[in-house]
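Input chain follows. Return structure tokens only.
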Amino acid sequence: MHLEGWTLWQGTTKVINPNRQHLYELMHDPITTSKWIRLGRFPDSAPPHIDSEMASKHTKALKPGYQRWITKHASHNCGVGTTLVEWQQQEDDQCPRCGQPEDTNHVIRCTGAGATEIWTEQMNVLTDWMTEANTHPLLQDTLLANLQRWRQGLPPITAHASPRIQQMLESQTLIGWQNLMEGLPSCWIRRIQQKHILQNQLRSSGKKWTQQS
């Protein structure tokens, strides 16, 4: 552009909004993703499947305390049994509810006294919200079923008659179902919901639905 002056490029793509937040993301997102891969949170083939835009917006909408909790929980850097033993603050890693080794996965999967009731209550809340938000029925059923299977230690449902639900299943299974609960949804979730909204002429959008979920 005439008299434009300095320009900033990311590879062959021109950065059209070089504000502080955007530049920070361009510099640090690849570093963060690389570290998550090294820590085994997801394979190196998963990042293109993650709806990073919605993950970012959803996290920023949370209160700072919840943002810190998700980061610590996802990185296994919080006060669970295995971490406390590693930090030499505790002699055993037993869960106080059931006595099993307690890591961040176990916190959600624990079947000790009261844990299943809390899980059931929260799943009911999620089910009610998804229904009220006019979620695609097949998408809702499949997501809820696989979250339940993940908690029970069962393999996810990976086959579906709907081609789009099938693509979502393969994509989210690659990313991980625990990662869905920790804020890393597949891009296919938003696409399926957006098409459902357009077909039924609903007053919403896939982006708004994903950000609120």
